[in-house]
Design a protein that fits this description.
binds nicotinamide-adenine-dinucleotide, 13 helices, three-stranded antiparallel β-sheet, Dehydroquinate synthase-like, alpha domain, seven-stranded mixed β-sheet, alpha/beta, binds glycine
Length: 350
């Protein structure tokens, strides 16, 4: 069993272990004095894992409410958040009690934001069930819902009290959802860890090293979050590939292309332009493409640089007439580059 301690303002532990889901009820019973909880999950996850989990908690003497969302990004909205507040209230959740987020990033972000705001903040546990959630969204305390004008525009920083991460839960993911998560894994390797990059490149079967890879990613994120919990500087590096990626998603109205696919294209785009401008070492983009193809992730787009530019203007890393992008000098080494909008145009079009 691996334990990763995250030293944020409210510190917590991430337990990573294949098969640990089986003992979740015990871990939670030892962790919290309260015996009143609400599990937030989605329909797909509830069918596979939620029902069994609920029964285990009931046997341990918990009073358990279950709030089930429809699966998918559309569920991360204010209506569901409001219904969840009512449900928490009806379930008599008090400040001593806690929420359990059992699911992917959608469940984790919405449940986390409910925990951040209900009664001005209660505890929550993350049990991430997708690769994205295990390596990224369950760690670091960013919680949010989407509104009409954009994704994740309403949210809060609220660290979980505990994260229980079982790589075995990923065995039921569709290959599309798994590969989407690999986009984020590759992001960590390219932006922060050459050794992780080499590991991914050399291993024939990712499942053989999954727990180790998940821990490598969590450690990358932990280090960054500990330096910059509030996303004021270095944490922005976690968004490598995301400025162009989000622009591509927005251009497609969040249809046709998944987040992981868009980020993959975004990473290649930034590295290619970086090579042309001498910011990125020659031939690094080819290495990136090679690893993305291995996980069936796309490497190019037919969207024009003008459309990428226009659709980047809502990026959270834009401040007035400047935008900060994440570049890579060589595999494993990223840096922030703040450009005026004209310079950003030149960067995209050179
Ligand atoms: P998701 O939560 O929508 O899950 C993807 C699909 O997989 C869903 O259909 C879900 O029902 C299904 N699923 C989940 N676990 C499963 C399992 N074990 N077996 C079978 N099916 C399963 O998507 P996601 O990719 O996990 O997360 C994306 C969300 O995460 C986005 O909203 C994004 O904004 C957010 N996110 C947040 C952060 C953060 O720091 N807070 C970081 C990255 C992403
Ligand atoms: N997923 C980016 C962050 O947590 O900052």
């Amino acid at each position: 069993m691996r334990k990763i301690f995250v030293n944020t303002d409210n510190p917590y532990e991430i337990i990573v272990h294949k098969g640990i889901f089986e003992y979740c009820d015990e871990i939670i019973a030892n962790f919290f004095d309260s015996r009143n909880t609400v599990i937030v999950t989605d329909e797909t996850v509830y069918k596979i894992y939620g029902k069994i989990f609920k029964d285990k908690l009931l046997k341990k003497g918990f009073k358990v409410g279950v709030f089930v969302l429809k699966a998918g990004e559309q569920s991360k909205n204010l209506n569901n958040l409001s219904s969840l507040y009512h449900f928490l209230s009806e379930s008599e959740i008090t400040r001593d009690d806690f929420i359990i987020a059992l699911g992917g990033g959608v469940v984790g972000d919405l449940a986390g934001f409910a925990a951040a705001s209900f009664l001005r903040g209660i505890s929550f546990i993350q049990i991430p069930t997708t690769l994205v959630a295990q390596v990224d969204s369950s760690v670091g305390g960013k919680t949010a819902v989407n509104i009409k004008s954009g994704k994740n525009l309403v949210g809060a920083f609220h660290q979980p009290s505990l994260v229980i991460c079982d790589p075995d839960l990923l065995s039921t993911l569709s290959s599309r959802v798994f590969c989407d998560g690999m986009g984020e894994v590759i992001k960590y390797a390219v932006a922060f860890s050459e050794s992780l990059f080499i590991k991914l490149l050399n291993q024939a079967n990712i499942y053989d090293i999954l727990e180790e890879v998940i821990c490598d990613c969590i450690n990358c994120k932990k280090n960054i979050v500990e330096q910059d919990e509030r996303d004021l500087e270095n944490r922005m590096k976690l968004n490598f590939g995301h400025t162009v990626g989000h622009a591509i998603e927005k251009y497609n109205n969040y249809t046709k292309i998944t987040h992981g696919q868009a980020v993959s294209i975004g990473m290649v785009y930034i590295m290619q332009q970086g090579e042309k401008l001498g910011i990125t070492k020659k031939n690094e983009t080819e290495k990136l493409k090679c690893i993305l193809k291995k996980f069936k992730l796309p490497t190019n787009t037919c969207i024009s640089w003008e459309d990428i530019f226009t659709n980047s203007l809502g990026d959270k890393k834009r401040r007035g007439d400047n935008i900060t992008i994440v570049t890579v000098s060589e595999i494993g080494k990223s840096r922030l580059l703040t450009l005026s909008l004209d310079e950003y145009k030149n960067f995209l079009s050179c």
